[in-house]
Write a structure and sequence with these properties.
Elements (H helix, E strand, L loop, with lengths): L1 H81 L2 H20 L5 H20 L3 H17 L3 H7 L4 H9 L4 H9 L3 H7 L2 H9 L16 H14 L3 H11 L2 H11 L4 H17 L3 H5 L1
Helix pairs in contact: 1-2, 1-3, 2-4, 3-4, 4-7, 6-7, 7-10, 9-10, 10-13, 12-13
C-alpha cells in the first residue's frame, strides 16, 4: 500500500510539475510575443524598404539612361544646326541623324516634336542653301530615308517649305538621290514638266552602275527606279505633241537598254512603268521593237 501510495504521490507531483511548465510556457509566450511581432514587423519593413530602394534605384538608372540618350540626341542635333555636321562628318553623321529621327518618329511630347522639327528644318536648309555637293547629297539621303520610313513626313516637309526647284537643282548637279525624293513627293504632271528634268532623269538611268548611285541602293526606291517612274508620267500625261516630244528623247537603243536594266529584279510598280514606256515607244517608233526584243 505504501509503495502504491508513493507511486500515486509521484504521479501527482509529475502532473503538477507539467501544469506549472505549461503555465510558464504560456506566460513566456505572452512575454516574448510582442517582441517577436516587433522583430517580424521590422524584418518585413526592412524587406519592403529594400524593395522600394531597388525600385527607386531602377527608376533612377532608367532616368539616367533616358537623360543620357536625350543628351546624345541634343548634341547630334546641335551639331547639325551650328557646326555644319553633315559637311564635316560626312556619311557617318548622316547615318546617326537618320537613326535618331527614326527613333523619334513614334515618340510623343513637346521636346521630341521640337527635335523632329529642328532636324527636318536643318535638312531642308542644307538642301536649299548649301553649295557643297556632299552636304546636299547627305541631307537628301537622310530626308529620303526618313520619308521612306514614314511617308506622312512628306506633309511635314511640304509645310516647312520644301521646294521642288531645290530638288531639281540638286538632281541637275548630279545628286541623284533627289530623284527618289521627287518621286515620293508625287508632284503633279504639270509640276514635273515645269522642272524640265527629262535629260537628267535619262542620265540617272544611264549611269545605273556608276559610283554616284551606290550610296542610294539601300533606299526602297532607288534613283534610277524613281527616274523611270517619273519618265512614265512625262510620256503619258500630256497631249500627243508633248508626249511624242518626250518619247523622241528616250527612243534610242542606249536609253531603252538601260530602262530594261533598271526594272530587272525590282518591284511590280517599276515593271508596270517600264511596260507602259515601252509600249508608248513602240507606238511612236516601230523600230523600237528590235531594240527591245
Amino acid at each position: 500500500m505504501l509503495e502504491f501510495g508513493d507511486t500515486k504521490i509521484n504521479t501527482l507531483q509529475v502532473e503538477e510539475a507539467r501544469s506549472r511548465f505549461e503555465l510558464e510556457k504560456v506566460q513566456l509566450f505572452e512575454h516574448i510575443a510582442p517582441t517577436y511581432r516587433r522583430i517580424k514587423s521590422l524584418i518585413h519593413m526592412k524587406q519592403e524598404w529594400a524593395a522600394a530602394r531597388e525600385k527607386v534605384d531602377s527608376c533612377r538608372r532608367g532616368k539616367d539612361s533616358k537623360s543620357e540618350l536625350m543628351e546624345i540626341i541634343e548634341n547630334a542635333v546641335s551639331k547639325l544646326c551650328f557646326s555644319d555636321g553633315l559637311e564635316k562628318s560626312g556619311k557617318d553623321y548622316a547615318v546617326e541623324i537618320t537613326s535618331i529621327y527614326r527613333m523619334l518618329i513614334n515618340k510623343q511630347g513637346v521636346k521630341y516634336t521640337m527635335l523632329k522639327h529642328v532636324i527636318l528644318e536643318q535638312l531642308l536648309i542644307a538642301i536649299s542653301t548649301s553649295n557643297e555637293e556632299m552636304v546636299i547629297r547627305a541631307s537628301l539621303t537622310v530626308l529620303t530615308t526618313i520619308v521612306s520610313a514614314k511617308i506622312s513626313v512628306i506633309d511635314d516637309i511640304k509645310k516647312k517649305g520644301l521646294r521642288l526647284s531645290d530638288l531639281a537643282r540638286a538632281l541637275k548637279c548630279n545628286v541623284h538621290e533627289a530623284a527618289t525624293l521627287i518621286y515620293l513627293i508625287k508632284p503633279s504632271a504639270a509640276e514635273i514638266k515645269t522642272l524640265e528634268l527629262l535629260p537628267t532623269l535619262m542620265d540617272v538611268i544611264c549611269t545605273l552602275n556608276s559610283s554616284r548611285c551606290r550610296l542610294s541602293k539601300s533606299l526602297t526606291v532607288t534613283p534610277p527606279a524613281a527616274s523611270l517612274m517619273i519618265i512614265e508620267v512625262l510620256v503619258t500625261a500630256f497631249d500627243n505633241a508633248t508626249n511624242n516630244m518626250h518619247l523622241a528623247a528616250i527612243s534610242s537603243p542606249r536609253v531603252l537598254s538601260r530602262f530594261l536594266d533598271v526594272a530587272r529584279n525590282h518591284s511590280l510598280e517599276e515593271h508596270i512603268s517600264l511596260a507602259t514606256i515601252l509600249v508608248k515607244c513602240m507606238q511612236f517608233d516601230g523600230h523600237c521593237r528590235k531594240y527591245i526584243s
